[in-house]
Records
---
Amino acid sequence: MAKQKIAVVGAGLIGLSTAVYISESISKCSVTVISDKFTPNTTSDVAAGMLIPHTYQGIPIHQQKQLFRETFDYLFEINNSSEASDAGINLVSGWQIFKTIPDEVLPFWSDVVLGFRSMTEEELKKFPQHRFGQAFTTLKCDCPSYLLWLEKRLKGNGSQVYARRIEDLWELHSKYDVVVNCSGIGSRELMGDLEIYPVRGQVLKVDAPWVNHFIRDGDGLTYIYPGIHNVTLGGTRQKDNWNLSPDPRSSKDIFDRCCALEPSLQRAQDIKVRVGLRPSRLAVRLQKEILVHDGKKLPVVHNYGHGSGGFSVHRGTAKEAARLVGECIAALEGSSLKAKL
Ligand SMILES: Cc1cc2nc3c(=O)[nH]c(=O)nc-3n(C[C@H](O)[C@H](O)[C@H](O)COP(=O)(O)OP(=O)(O)OC[C@H]3O[C@@H](n4cnc5c(N)ncnc54)[C@H](O)[C@@H]3O)c2cc1C
Ligand SMILES: O=C(O)CCC(=O)C(=O)O
């Protein structure tokens, strides 16, 4: 039987990781990634790349935990291999601190990250404004390195990558058998999906190599995330704000908030401002849809709407999207067999 042709729309974290999963797990297909933007110009490049899950209100917790665990285990294996440096993956330890004791002292992901425990009184002395804290070790991606690594893996296994903007998924009908939609916030226009909205995030990427412990305020607004090449200082969470231009007042506010937690950051150098729009939704859209035009059909698998947590769950959602693609292929093969009989 001829190979089924799969088009993946989007070359951010979700598109590339889904394309990699499909190309490595489904032998009877060829994979092409089509996107209008590539690294270093995607939202995924702006992210801190920390594996700290955000809760999706529309997904049962046990499923979220499974998506996180699959992603953590996958990246942990890369971290423990000679690929770690090329892929831009490292382990990072640190603290999540709270001004008041949170409802959830033991978050659902506490037994997936490593060495999760409450902070000691001694550790908390560093943060006189905070009363409670959690210490743990997690993984962090250097986002542009990880995206390049995924792209290299794809090209290495014979997949194609093209630059093109798609106005309507139906454009792909004549050349491809199944389309996988990983267009992030672009799905608002591409699919007319009004359930997805931007949450604007501004961060600073600074040079401060002496900072090697992460600090996250439990309110999710202020964070210091040391990575391989720089330290990410955050942030902002501005719902329905589409503005991609840096705001100097936010930059100053972020810097001041981070210095209040880690005063040595006053000496940080080479401060770069980055802005991204988190593709937010109550739940990631992981779903099959059959588009129909003039009696012709095009199976589509959606994988978008990862909001603040794309890095934390991407491998798990790639696996589920690949499973749905497998179902589409089985249905196509079933119907072509029937037509021959
Ligand atoms: C400041 C900030 C910090 C973050 N930190 C973290 C973190 O520490 N941990 C974490 O887990 N998550 C984090 N995130 C969230 C994470 O970045 C996102 O969940 C993730 O990047 C979403 O990936 P994506 O591939 O869906 O989107 P994108 O990276 O936006 O990729 C979408 C792709 O689709 C393409 N596209 C869109 N429309 C079309 C079209 N019509 N035709 C062709 N191509 C199209 C785009 O060009 C792009 O290539 C952060 C986000 C921000 C903004
Ligand atoms: O929330 C965090 O701590 C990680 C950064 C992030 O996910 C974000 O800013 O969206």
Note: The radius of gyration is 21 Å.
---
Amino acid sequence: MAHTPSPEQADILHSRASVVHIDAVAGAGKTTTMAMIARDACARGLGPAAIACLAFSAGARKRFAQKLAEEGAPAGLVVSTVGDHALRHLNKLMSTGMLDLPPRITGREMRERLVQAAEQVWQRYERAGIATDFDFGIEHSTDRIDHLLQVLRQLKAALKTHQFTEDDFRSVDLHEISEEHDLPVQLIEICAEYERLREPSPGEFAWQAEDDFVPDLVRLLALYPAALDHLWHAALYLVDEWHDVNAAEFKLIALLKRRGRLVVVGDRDQVIDEARGAELRFSAETFLAAYPEAVRFPLRRSRRFGPSVSRAVSRLTSRQVESFEGLHTVQHKLRYAPPVPGSCAAAVIAHARKVHEAEQGVQWSDIAIITRDDDQSIDIENALIDARIPYRCEDVVSYLLRPEILFMRALLHIVSGHYDTLEKDASTVQAMVSALAAFVSMPADRQQFEVDYMKTGRSPRKTPLEEAIESVQGTPSALRWFFDGIVATHRETDSQLTRNWKARFGACVAELTANSASLPTAAAVLQAVQRMVDLPAAVGRAVPRRSEADSAVRSIRSFTQFAEACGKMSIAQFLTELRGRQGKLSARTDAQRHRAQLVLTTVRAAKGQEWDHVILPYLERGEFPRTANLAEEKRFLYVAMTRARASLALAEPDDGHRELWSSLLHGVAARTGAGEPAP
Ligand SMILES: Nc1ncnc2c1ncn2[C@@H]1O[C@H](COP(=O)(O)OP(=O)(O)OP(=O)(O)O)[C@@H](O)[C@H]1O
């Protein structure tokens, strides 16, 4: 049903400025306003085909389309992601003969080409006699290739990859790019090599993947400006969630706009999506520099939460946030004692239960627990399971299935020799074998794998990893064979570093197996592994990005604490306990899909959504904020707090642990925006 515009929305609807920048607060009706503009433009005679409704993610596109329907906009209006919009233009250039559309490659082909690029960079180092500790053998680790793909994506989003294919490429300072992105220079070199293979001569692409559509179109339009004349130009561009725009998208929209009207709406305090290259500057100074004629409008008042949250987030962001009359959000403070294991989770679960029982109409699905990062879910998940509260992990993986935990679980199976709990559990085996391979190293290169290990029974349709997974699925005790005979076995082609890791893990498992009688509990084994192997370094190898590696190490520590809390349980009993917990989780996901479940999610995944009751755990130093980047940490907290409608509960250390209070809520940082970083 269409809403009556508020006075602020009415001002925007009446504006005829050629460029409009709407700066809004959370829940202020951003998407609704864009839908109203589209609807009114059509009512004034503009055809739906002349309006480009754009968003940056599939989720945002869906919400925009929903709002168009709610506001009664004509059905002919289509919302696209900017990536799809670019692809449409690339197809157009192809139909006019200006471009040979390159073959689209699959994720697997992309990975193979990255491995090839790494190999070429390594050969360059060899030829030049440059010594390096960097392990170029990325084919040995699925996770390292994944990480490289992520780096490449960011470089493309920032249009940095265009520099790699310039004629004067040698002058590009790769070190500068590596410092800016906080990454080893060798990773940047591999990306540069990949791009040169992909674009052997300017504007000619040997292949294309989804992340290439926007940067490639920008590249073509820079090389051949006349191509713009062949493209379709909208009379009105409406761009939602503008705070998510990255450099490549910003540039493309600027190129396509021409004489069209441009209306963008965003909330600069919601910039937390750096993985896709979103940057704060595009919501402010860069936009105004590019469009000095832009008229700015505010949407200052939230329709989601009441004044108590408005006041709190105004302090946090140093920006005036207001709420519409009649809204009321109750704030609760939950206290816990950080040194007591499980204390925060217990307080959170007790509160969730109280909220659920307080009124009859409250469903579990009206309640969301939002953590800063996914590794913080372990205690909470365990407490939810113990309390028999149905829950689902939204856009995050349950701790029981995270690679670092599956890796530790695999070691427990191998050391104890108990495999019963893996019987008939094909999906856990699949994830566990993959995790073991990623952490210790195995070749992702199919041919090499087959030559070295898989002498029999191979099917040409399967990848090497799939072959191994199938073996362990059939006979779970083959996990030991997989570890000894494949994962930890030296091969000719291993780099020195890989050999060292294989030797370390091999020795660790051999020693633990030999001494298994003196290691009766899971906690004892997990502690011993951490004494024998430098776990942060091992994790860092599988997950090179520091923040993700830190999060994985924290996961392992929490998992060890959970094992300690299980007391004298034998390893077999502990593994059975885990299977039981996992069983409850999957039973809930399958059988109760349509029934009410509490939502457990992270700030990133919660963006753009809202719940009646929101609980934020672990608001303490080192947990939230998690990094020294307080400005970004504040934006994370802002997004988290503004998801609440009726109640918001903040869980923080009790008065006895004031030294652990979060600087985001207390002290200098909370008052001024400055402050001490997390320890
Ligand atoms: N003029 C209006 N009258 C009444 N309700 C409105 C009006 N405009 C928007 N709303 C409602 O306010 C709520 C928030 O709107 P919307 O989802 O568009 O906000 P947003 O700013 O995009 O949120 P986010 O914080 O997720 O970015 C929705 O329930 C919407 O239906």
Note: Residues 107-207 form one domain.
